[in-house]
Design a protein that fits this description.
single chain; alpha/beta; 6-stranded mixed β-sheet; 17 helices; binds adenosine-5'-triphosphate; binds magnesium ion
Length: 500
């Protein structure tokens, strides 16, 4: 097969810290080539170099056999390279269709933009992805997973020959991911080169022709499809074997009801949702994209309105006016969208850690107690395994998975009574993910009530005591997690079996 992109001895440092060491790799047309590695291994950095976002410090990149200068995304695009970034980059206040065609607007003979044509094309592209979304909708109103799909749609519409997807499925559920994979396989058949990054090794094994593993910025090796077993990939990633196992279930199930919702409704988002979460319990919430799971969480913490229904927090009637007030009342929400709600990218790790619990570190006369900030940060970085462990680093300089750990730390420092986590292990590598699971269980054992929204079925099954399933804004059932299977949950989620 002909080589699409040749990467030869590419290196990159940030402020003297070398994060890529002489990486060489060949990407061919007609293959799906996955890149695996722990959080911070250098995957996104390498992709950004190919995509013209970062310049390398050394080495060369060839495209179609010719040395290529890729100093801007535009240059990369002209060479036929397109990329979906791990951190989404949509313009929130623009409609879906315009995001898809931004800077490539279709114009008529007089230079007027052809809005109708673009809306039509956008619809077609999203349909191919099995997505039902109005192309005229404003992006800010859409859930994270839908945004992820729109980014993918944008890449498809670019009609490039080399497609790079950096964790495109981190918030997608089974069904959406499969729609994407069908498309990627057909693009591969057309001869396109596809680079795919994911921490979900099942996916990697399902669609890859070859798998390359990076560790600490170095290339460990490339495996063929036959060689790429999960064990082999993992041991190359971390240099040892890791068992994927989950913590034990709740110690006690008779804790006090901490959060109780009855008949919650929000126009066009969700209807008649009733459930409760007890102290010491992890309630899983599963649903497809658009099922309304995130919308329920946003309403509970006051980031969106509730039209009708009641909420009780620790036995008292409760209605949050803002997420800030919810935090004060002991209800925290870890958002699936780090960028929008949650992490302050231009602030340091320690500022992020204490931002939700300033009163804890504020002394007399409102002075921030530096020492205490440091000690809280040190403890959280240790507990969560944040790399690099430097509390004065800017959040923006961390890899995606490490940003996720910091976001979790921010809410832990507020020490809530009820914690809602939305895709808690999104983009987190296999070792750190297990770490987060054990941590959530430990928090529950210490009395926290946890509502965990996730599109990762093994995570839902492995961690939840009960599983609540939503479909198209409605509650389909709440299932005890004994003898539950992935198929069992999916059947309920697809709306085929209903137990309202
Ligand atoms: N803009 C930046 N400034 C400083 N350091 C950076 C910057 N971008 C990345 N790094 C560092 O480079 C290293 C590699 O990060 P990268 O984002 O490539 O990892 P990754 O393999 O994509 O990880 P993840 O799975 O978490 O997304 C990390 O140590 C990260 O902190
Ligand atoms: Mg990354």
């Amino acid at each position: 097969m002909r080589e699409a992109v040749g990467i030869d001895k590419v290196s990159k440092s940030f402020f003297g810290n070398k994060v890529l060491h002489d990486v060489s790799l060949s990407i061919k047309y007609g293959e799906i080539h996955s890149i695996c590695g722990e959080n911070g291994a250098g995957k996104s950095t390498l992709m950004k170099i190919i995509g013209g976002i970062y310049n390398s410090d050394g080495g060369t990149i060839t495209v179609n056999g010719e040395e290529a200068s890729l100093r801007t995304p535009q240059e990369a695009y002209l060479r036929g390279i397109g990329i979906v970034h791990q951190e989404l980059s949509l313009a929130d206040n623009m409609p879906v269709w315009h995001n898809i065609f931004v800077n490539r607007e279709i114009t008529g003979p007089l230079g007027f933009i052809k809005r109708r044509d673009m809306q039509q094309r956008a619809s077609e592209i999203l349909e191919k992805l099995d997505m039902r979304v109005d192309p005229r909708a404003k992006v800010s109103t859409l859930p994270f997973a839908t945004k992820q799909m729109i980014e993918i749609g944008k890449l498809l519409s670019m009609d490039v020959d080399v497609l790079i997807l950096d964790e495109p499925t981190s918030a997608l559920s089974e069904r959406e991911s499969q729609a994407l994979f069908d498309l990627l396989l057909s693009l591969k058949k057309q001869g396109k080169a596809i680079i795919f990054i994911s921490h979900k090794l099942d996916e990697v094994r399902q669609i890859s022709d070859r798998v390359t593993v990076l560790r600490d910025g170095r290339l460990v090796g490339t495996l063929t499809r036959e060689e790429a077993t999960t064990d082999r990939i993992v041991s190359m990633m971390v240099g040892r074997d890791i068992d994927e196992f989950y913590p034990p279930k709740a110690k006690r199930r008779d804790g006090k009801i901490m959060l109780k919702c009855s008949g919650l409704s929000r126009k066009d988002k969700f209807e008649d949702i009733s459930f409760d979460v007890r102290e010491g319990e992890i309630l899983g919430l599963y649903g497809l994209v658009g099922s309304g799971r995130t919308e329920v969480a946003l309403s509970l913490v006051g980031a969106d309105k509730i039209d009708s229904g009641t909420v009780e927090l620790d036995g008292m009637s409760f209605r949050a006016r803002s997420p800030r007030q919810a935090v004060k009342s002991g209800l925290c929400y870890l958002s699936e969208d780090r960028k929008q709600l949650g992490l302050f990218l231009e602030m340091t790790l320690e500022e992020n850690f204490v931002s939700s619990s300033l009163e804890r570190v504020t002394g007399q006369f409102g002075v921030i107690q530096e020492k205490q900030v440091k000690s809280i940060s040190e403890q959280l970085m240790e507990q969560l395994g944040v790399v690099p462990k430097r509390s004065e680093a800017l959040a923006a300089s961390l890899s995606g998975g490490n940003q996720q750990k910091v976001l979790l730390g921010k809410w832990l420092s507020a020490n809530p009574r009820v914690l809602i986590v939305d895709e808690p292990s999104r983009g987190v590598d296999i070792g750190a993910k297990s770490n987060i699971h054990f941590l959530l269980r430990e928090l529950a054992d210490r009395g926290m009530a946890i509502l965990m929204i996730s599109s990762d079925l093994p995570e839902i099954l492995g961690l939840s005591d009960r599983v609540m399933v939503m479909h198209e804004g409605r509650l389909k059932g709440i299932l005890e997690n004994t003898d539950l299977t992935q198929e069992g949950i999916m059947n309920v989620a697809y709306g085929e079996v209903g137990t309202p």
